[in-house]
Amino acid sequence: MKSTLYTTAVAVAFSVTKVAAHATFQDLWINGYGASCARLPLSNSPVQDVTSKDIACNAGTSPVSGKCSVAAGTTVTVEMHQQPRDRSCSNEAIGGDHHGPVQVYMASVSDAASADGSTASWFKIFADTWASNPSGSNGDADFWGTKDLNACCGLMNVKIPSDIAPGDYLLRAEALALHSAGSPGQGQFYMTCYQLTVTGSGTAKPAGVALPGAYAASDPGILVNIHAPMSTYIAPGPTVYSSGSTRSAGGACAACESTCAVGSSPTTSAGSGGGSGPSTTLSTATTTGSGSTPTGCTVAFPEAAKL
Ligand SMILES: [Cu+2]
């Protein structure tokens, strides 16, 4: 599939060959506004070597200049598509029966605009993994995080824990596609790191794990045949941090997952800002500093250039 070029920056970032079905996490929505603080992957190809540094923030990515400011406790929304900003809900966010868990991590860093994710300490803040489908006969028919992404046009809500200390963080969204994972090394990881500055008065500094380090190719959630009946699924990595959140696979789309669309009004969500923002296009949210603009982002994504 040929990708449409949107902006110079995005076009350059996605200029390599695309493969249908594969996908990338792209924009981040904060209080209903799109924000650009993603270290966009250079292609939509997966990372499969869990011992590679690429498992942290995808292959070949570099820090970007923007940081997204977000209050602790805010529910943000990550967005995945096969092609850059292909928001057509008729195209699956991640296609090709790429079923598997969606998990999100954070790592406290001194400067999100320069931090190396492969040396960071990651704690898991969110998981939407697997649930049995009583009317299905195998794992393919069961409920998965990636199916929720597809059902919600690529959007998934993730709460930033309320109690974490303010400061810079990397936020890492990960989808793991398990369609070929019955063979070693064939689990497909799709991840993007976002650069955040978290505000608030929390004090928690959750213990983390290393990526690479926390995953092994033989983990039961990575080396697994989902084409057979499944009675359980153990997602890779540590347990979700106590103030993090989980979502039951197969649940309904909610809040931004249902309402965040280009040109729509922002929906009020937890955290500050958002409630009375402009109702025109999201590009108006690029302006910061007035009372009606969101507090969520320092750089809004350039929808006007695209649409
Ligand atoms: Cu694939």
UniProtKB/TrEMBL annotation:
This is lytic cellulose monooxygenase (C4-dehydrogenating). It comes from Xylaria multiplex. InterPro entries: AA9 (IPR049892), AA9_LPMO (IPR005103). The keyword Kinase does not apply. The keyword Secreted applies. Transmembrane segments: none annotated. Its EC number is 1.14.99.56. It is found in: Secreted.
